[in-house]
Amino acid sequence: MAVRVLAITAIGTALGVLGATLAVTSFAEPAPDVSFAASSSPLRAQDGSGAVVPSVPSNFPGSALAPVGAVAVFAPWVKKAGALCPEITPPMIASLYSGENGFEYGPASAETTDGRRGPGRFTTAEWTAYGRDGDGDGKMDIFGVADPVMTTGYRLCELVGQARNWLNSGEADGDVADLALAAYDVGPDAVRAAHRVPADQAVQYVARIRSLQDSFALMLTPFDYNTLAGAVGGVVQAGLKFLGLPYVWGGGNVNGPSMGGFDCSGLTSYAMYAATGITLPRTSETQWGVGVEIPLDQAQPGDLLFGNWQAGGPGHVAIYVGNGQMLHAPTFGDVVKVGPIFAGMKARRVL
User: Fold this and answer.
1) Mean pLDDT of the chain
2) C or N terminus of the chain, fewer CB within 10 Å?
């Protein structure tokens, strides 16, 4: 796959975008008497397997929210694809996708002049040969997120196997992952013909991906959902299923998202009920009255965190996930994501 201009800022700026705390602004929660009918929208994550990562269709509205929304949606699939074989890591795949098209996805994402489409920039022939149903929804969506990313992971691991054979037989020299990346870019035949990473295009391709790995390792750290799922389960895992879903004022209830998304207390209401059967009041202010307050430094995954304090109480509520991070639906224009705890937050234990 041809190298493309990398749309990435310096690591400090990138981490600032991904981990920026929400400014303390006032955004009112909906009144308790508002009707929150459960939505039958196709935006609801389909995860019949109980997996942490949601199925993300190509028309998912997060595509209009890049970079924050797009990275939040890509991160769990990058983690999953980067666990298929030890030589291919999540930061490596994230670096590759940043170079391909800057995490754009959906039918509106640009198509190259040579017919490469979707976030993975696959040609029709490549997609026919290697495409995977990464999220198990019964179709292969070249414009989606899960299918292209998982296809990349599987293809790279296949190429790792080929590269190892070349090294063992003396047909090529070099690092096995570098050879696999080069073969992904220019094809296995070109690598075998050169007996190494081919000069010029492939060398530059591999060098760019390698040069960004450390940055992407840091950028992906707050999105370590697979580790979180195994460690905490319950309330956190229930909420993680909706990563990347848009913030919608008044959205969500115990049945899941409504109107296409969640607001902060809609997300906590759903996650708590799904994991424990406990029905929380609808707003952050009234949820503060449930359970008992605990010192913030004693918070455990699944505890509720409250912030953005106003005269009527907390204007924001989130779910603690551990290591100073919380799962929440922040505000207008943002998405359900994991990020650092805000200053001045208080913790409450419901269970």
Assistant:
1) 78
2) C
